[in-house]
Amino acid sequence: MKKVLAFDVDQTLNVAKMPIPDEIAELLVKCLNHYEVCPISGQKYEQFLIQIVDRLVETGATPEQLCHLHLFVAQGTQYYRYNLDKKEWDQVYNYPLTDEQVAKISEAIEKAAKELGYWEEDKLADGDEIIENRLSQVTFSALGQKAGTEAKYAWDPDCKKREAIVKRCKELAPEFEYEIGGTTSINAITPGMNKVFGMTHLMEELKVEKPEILYFGDMTQPGGNDYPVVQMGIETITVRSHEDTAYALRGILGVTE
């Protein structure tokens, strides 16, 4: 019997970097009545609030329901849980990179992207950045966080640009791991600090076993940031859009409610 529904975020619950749409918000609020709901993504904490939490609250999620929502930030290397007494989110743990690691990863990614002709700083919006320190990981976003959805989807639809960047990064800084995610992103981490780490801690924190988890993700192919979950043996549904996820959730709720 499933107790946990875990989700990648971009391309799984939403259009990349956008707040979750109304239907997903409504379905997740219903899921909170029956399951522990666990988004796990390379996104930073503030994006989880904007893209997921705020939308659930707008849709009617109560503080009691939010106690069943668990935010596994930066691939689960940071975990936030709702505190019902304080009516705010508590950070349960955080495993940050050192300043030296951040600098080395950033240098390798910038060098690789520039060598390959994929460093497009001229396309950034004011105040935006290509390389972002997310504490426990460093993320390359080719067009920045503020770029339009259409531009992001068009930049690397087959992942070939990012695969080339990753290949070069592994030559420049092989002590780190690099995963492709979202539409224009690469997440760089220390070995083992991927979604295996996050899902393992999820099981520990929620006291559940693998058969009790159902995971949804769009990057389940080798090299994708959801692939480690597949390798763990956790039951996974591969989706290509939030519409696919909504279809599956309607079916799950249909036999649950």
Notes on the structure:
- The chain has 257 residues and is an alpha/beta fold.
- 39% of the residues lie in helices and 20% in strands.
- The chain has helices at residues 22-31, 45-59, 63-66, 99-116, 149-155, 160-172, 195-206, 227-232, 242-256, and strands at residues 4-7, 36-39, 70-73, 78-83, 88-94, 131-133, 138-141, 177-181, 185-189, 213-217, 235-238.
- Strands 2-1-10-11 form a four-stranded parallel β-sheet, with no helix packed on it.
- Strand 8 (177-181) and strand 9 (185-189) form a beta hairpin.
- Helix 1 crosses helix 2 (45-59) and helix 4 crosses helix 6.
- The two termini are 14 Å apart.
- The model has no long low-confidence stretch (mean pLDDT 95).
Short description:
The protein is an alpha/beta fold and 257 residues long. The chain is built from nine helices and eleven strands. It has two domains: 156 residues, HAD superfamily/HAD-like (Rossmann fold, 3-Layer(aba) Sandwich), CATH 3.40.50.1000; 91 residues, Hypothetical Protein, Haloacid Dehalogenase-like Hydrolase, Chain: A, domain 2.
